[in-house]
Amino acid sequence: xxxxxxxxxxxxxxxxxxxxxxxxxxxxxxxxxxxxxxxxxxxxxxxxxxxxxxxxxxxxxxxxxxxxxxxxxxxxxxxxxxxxxxxxxxxxxxxxxxxxxxxxxxxxxxxxxxxxxxxxxxxxxxxxxxxxxxxxxxxxxxxxxxxxxxxxxxxxxxxxxxxxxxxxxxxxxxxxxxxxxxxxxxxxxxxxxxxxxxxxxxxxxxxxxxxxxxxxxxxxxxxxxxxxxxxxxxxxxxxxxxxxxxxxxxxxxxxxxxxxxxxxxxxxxxxxxxxxxxxxxxxxxxxxxxxxxxxxxxxxxxxxxxxxxxxxxxxxxxxxxxxxxxxxxxxxxxxxxxxxxxxxxxxxxxxxxxxxxxxxxxxxxxxxxxxxxxxxxxxxxxxxxxxxxxxxxxxxxxxxxxxxxxxxxxxxxxxxxxxxxxxxxxxxxxxxxxxxxxxxxxxxxxxxxxxxxxxxxxxxxxxxxxxxx
Length: 469
Description:
By secondary structure, this protein is mostly helical.
């Protein structure tokens, strides 16, 4: 092997160094730093051009919608407008007005080559392509079927005692409407806008996932918070959010919610790790221990506290559960056991069961017997409901004070169990019985309000739900 002289090595090293420096002109060390680029949302990774056109257009025309979507897990996973809104076989709610945008030169990507049939409403059927288990669970829940339940229970609807618009802006905003498409292919304004949990969509699916996972972020974390439930579960007749906030669970949530990890992956939200005390979802829907996550809120219930007479869920005639109350109580107890001992849990259920028994036997059944006697003797008129004072008294006994008493006991809110609950039940019962006893004793008929206001609602049950009757 030939030995290279030391001088030759030195000259060779200098030559290599000069050559390298020649490739990158020396202009000072500071100018070689990689400066940060301006942030921008870039459309990459196999998004089809039609979907890219949707994003370009909505970024300009509805920036709030775009910003919401851009922060979502959907955007992170390359799920675009097209994946959810593209019309599927059987869909009848094609957004015909939307098609006009593809021929407008003043719109971003307003070209015919991007034209796609878009559904006006994204429904659980659309969501089921990626979330089949969740949609199946939801479809058998009371949430999805609440229009049917409402019509089977509610005298306001069945007796036409409120107007159609009062129903649309009030009742149906939570329960849902039967969506209708008019002859021009537009959504009937009498049925829209609506995000009710039991909405019957034009494609036949029930409900609106966006009731809890609001568009267009569709956040799991949002649906885990009690605020996701409080649009519907509040007020004099079912004040679950007020009851929750009074309970120790709600107190802890408000004190420590900044420590909660609401964004953990689905099925992994864990007591003691991600949260200290449960929210509504933590007890009624989220997985915990060996209990699986569910979108069927009928599960884990051992009493129907919304019903006039408290019954087991499988005996709730408007919508009977498909399992036994013992199975569902065992699930809820397993949820409780993540934080509580068995003696604490058993003692809680002992008090709750006694509250149900006292409501049923001491208040509701005697009040219902009195009402039936008054009808049987012709002292009350069944033609309408609420046009006689005793009918309203009976309704509020179970629908307002009675629910508050039972739900307050169920969710550990003492003020609602007593002062807003059984205390008010007693007052209502005494007034009701005094007036009823007078009519039964004298044979006098109850006074009928001659001009009950705005009692103009349609009493026809929705054919799409009940068929032809």
